[in-house]
Amino acid sequence: MKHLTTALILALSLTAANAEYDIWKPDTQPYHEPQNAERYDERQYRQNDQHFEQHHQRYISHQKAAEIALKAFENKYRTQGFVEDIDFEHKFSGDYYEVEIEDRRGRDYEVRLDAQTGKVIWVRRDY
């Protein structure tokens, strides 16, 4: 009886797991239209780049932002890393750089800097 109960519970849990997968399949039933989302993100990046080009004298350079971010990362985590990507963000709350850094073990981190002053806002692990 004990083995029958265990087998029944296992069968029901597998059926429930498969039923959950059948209800929502990311490839066939997306929650949003991916093409619209991509166009929106692309437009936002173009607007950020255009703003930076028009007002670049207000901000530190991408190179300077990378140097500051890498130094802040290495001071906090006591390990070496390299810069993977730098994004300039123009938001209502303020302009900033978001710098992605990878350490020697392949772990990803993010550093956010004020784009005008170069002040480090935060350094954190990106999971």
List keywords for this structure.
127 residues, alpha+beta, Nuclear Transport Factor 2, Chain: A, 46% helix
Number of helices: 3
Shape: globular
What is the strand tally?
4
CATH class: Alpha Beta
Proportion of residues in β-strands: 25-35%
Topology-level CATH name: Nuclear Transport Factor 2, Chain: A
Largest β sheet strand count, sense and barrel closure:
4 strands, antiparallel
Helix content: 40-55%
- Terminal residue distance: 45 Å
CATH architecture: Roll
Q: Outline the low-pLDDT stretches.
A: 14-33
User: What integer is the average pLDDT?
Assistant: 78
Report Rg.
23 Å
Can you tell me the number of structural domains? 1
Order of strands across the widest beta sheet? 1-2-3-4
Instruction: Please state the structural category.
Output: alpha+beta
N-to-C series of helices and strands: HHHEEEE
Structural account:
The protein has 127 residues and is of the alpha+beta class. The protein has one domain (34-125): Nuclear Transport Factor 2, Chain: A, CATH 3.10.450. It is built from 3 helices and 4 strands; from the N terminus they run αααββββ. Strands 1-2-3-4 form a 4-stranded antiparallel sheet. It is globular, with a radius of gyration of 23 Å.
List the helices and strands and how they pair.
Blueprint (H helix, E strand, L loop, with lengths): L1 H22 L10 H21 L7 H16 L3 E11 L2 E10 L4 E7 L5 E6 L2
Antiparallel strand pairs: 1-2, 2-3, 3-4
